[in-house]
Specification:
This protein is an alpha+beta fold and about 70 residues long. Helices cover about 15% and strands about 25% of the residues. The longest helix is centred in the middle third of the chain and has 12 residues. It is flat and about 35 Å long.
């Protein structure tokens, strides 16, 4: 954990859907995950809503296969 993140209690866990091709062992792997940490719950929730929206540059109907989950520590 970075020193600047130790006081950030609210986060978003990013993981891959089970059927995502990027979860193949020779790519990211089935256990890949990443976290984004925030000072406040409001900051986290705002980004969580933004992540849940359809990406402006995606083709109509495309859905991201990244799974976002709110977490706290």
């Amino acid at each position: 954990m970075n020193p600047g993140e130790q006081h950030k209690r609210f986060g978003i866990r990013c993981s891959l859907a089970a059927d995502d091709p990027m979860s193949a062992a020779h790519l990211l792997g089935p256990d890949w995950e990443a976290y984004r940490w925030y000072q406040t719950e409001q900051q986290r929730d705002a980004d969580f809503e933004d992540y849940s929206r359809e990406h402006v540059y995606s083709r109509r109907g495309d859905r991201a296969s990244v799974v976002y989950t709110k977490v706290s520590r």
